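Hey team,

Sharing the Alpha-acetolactate decarboxylase run so nobody has to redo it. Sequence (240 residues) first:
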Amino acid sequence: MAKNELFQYSIMSALMDGVASHGIPIASMLTHGDHGLGTFKHMVGEMIVLDGVVYQMKSDGTVVPLDAASLATTITPFASVTRFQPTHTARATITGKEGLSNLLTRLMPTAKNHFLAIRIDGVFSTIHVRTAGGQLEPREKLPAVGNRQTTHTFENARGTIIGFRTPQYMMGINVAGDHLHFISDDRERGGHILAFESEGEVDVGVALLSNFHLELPTEDEEFNEAALVLDAKGIHAIEG
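Structure output:
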């Protein structure tokens, strides 16, 4: 795929309904992008793709990089990736998700109906994350999995936030709003971001994604039988 085109496998409403037993190999996903996020089979942990390397962020707050063998055998039931090349950059102090939202609006005021790819590098005075431990049985729905999530707060953490802004009309296809994951520079801590504040100025890169490629599961009984209805409140509750 060309730079700054978004590839997505499956949809958020399917994950909400517990469709997580099958998917595509991580190696296949990486042919579409080097920057992204998602989850793993049975929703075991959070995924971050940074500079082409895939990391699994586990419920105990630790991080495991996937080696070449794991890339071929590990699957993802839901992921979004792009070949990231920032089109807008800034140095800024960011006070939480609202501060980031305001910054993105200033940088790209006409992009409210587009996908954006986001990368932030720097030191964060506080960063609050969660990680999912996984399904206890096939088809367990995401809200039930989320009820067992673990949360961690890191202070004075140097690292990278990556993610995407999804327009409101795509809620249910993805997570509308800013969906962000964090990984520390030492690659030992990370998770799905619930809240954060930067320690002084950080480096922000953003790219507008005008092309969206969606691959739906095929020959997947779970997906074919799922009740794919929009649960906007449920998605916001679980994704923060």
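Residues 96-107 form the longest helix (12 residues).

Ping me if you want the raw files.
A.
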